[in-house]
Amino acid sequence: MSTIDTVAVLGAGTMGHGIAQVSAAAGCAVRLYDIDEGAVAAGLARVRANLDKGIERGKVTADERDAIMANLSTTTSIAEAVDGVDLVVEAAPESIQLKESIFSEVDVAAPEEAILATNTSSLSIGQIASVVRDPSRFVGMHFFNPVHIMKLVEVVWGPETSDATRDAAVDFARRLDKEPIVVKDAPGFASSRLGIVLGMEAIRMVEQEVASAEDIDKAMELGYRHPMGPLRLTDLVGLDVRLGIAEYLHERLGSDAFEPPALLRRMVAEGKLGKKSGGGFYAW
Ligand SMILES: NC(=O)c1ccc[n+]([C@@H]2O[C@H](COP(=O)([O-])OP(=O)(O)OC[C@H]3O[C@@H](n4cnc5c(N)ncnc54)[C@H](O)[C@@H]3O)[C@@H](O)[C@H]2O)c1
Questions:
Q1: pTM reported for the whole predicted model
Q2: What is 39-92 written as a DSSP string?
Q3: Does residue 77 line the site of ligand 1, with CB under 6 A?
Q4: Is the pLDDT of residue 2 over 90?
């Protein structure tokens, strides 16, 4: 498989702007696509703001920032975005219909040998890949937020992903200075599947008054060296978001370990969604 020099990133939001930034920093020519001018401009401004912060912290030089910005171009035409590229990374909203429709277009407009990747955090890689003519070149590349800081990339291989495609995704993640892990296309991949079990059990422990939220978090932070306990993390991600993932995994994997506790449902119903609502397991 040839090297990856040109990358199209589809969706310039929270994840897309970050994926574009790290790809441009690795020396690729990056085309950042979104549905309107405002969205691509906002994505580009976020990249610049990240880099400016990097300069303030002494991690990036002004020359490096300028070189990275020079590697980035923007477009609101999907055909223009994927024309002649080596890799497409889709980071549009988490909807199977939307992703299927995007990849139907990409399939026609991108080069036949381009690798097609989705940044989905939960959807089936095999299902999205079913809309392209050659699913062997389709793979999941699950980045974490904020992309320019978080090291992990889950490379998710679907039932028809070729070894060459999987290996190319792993190599590309390394080139971005990330740590790739290789995971089969199974619900929750590796990260959400483990993270949700821990999160649900921690909430059950609050429900059963085993310990306070602070002390349950400290058990993991100080006892297991997790950088953040599962309850604080739930507050940051959003209780509604975690509930949605837990329900999905409970349904798909059938294990009681994923069953959302009544306390979580009650808090979501009461609008206690975590940091974004001002309160969850902690006051924010
Ligand atoms: N936010 C996270 O922490 C996180 C982490 C890992 C993976 N993900 C996944 O990444 C993907 C994007 O999430 P996000 O948080 O960046 O969302 P976001 O809402 O911040 O950004 C999505 C962007 O896609 C654009 N968009 C809408 N319709 C589009 C279309 N048809 N084609 C191209 N772009 C379109 C929107 O204008 C927006 O700019 C989702 O699949 C999500 O599950 C998110």
A1: 0.93
A2: HHHHHHHHHHHHHHHHHHTTSS-HHHHHHHHHTEEEES-HHHHHTT-SEEEE--
A3: no
A4: no
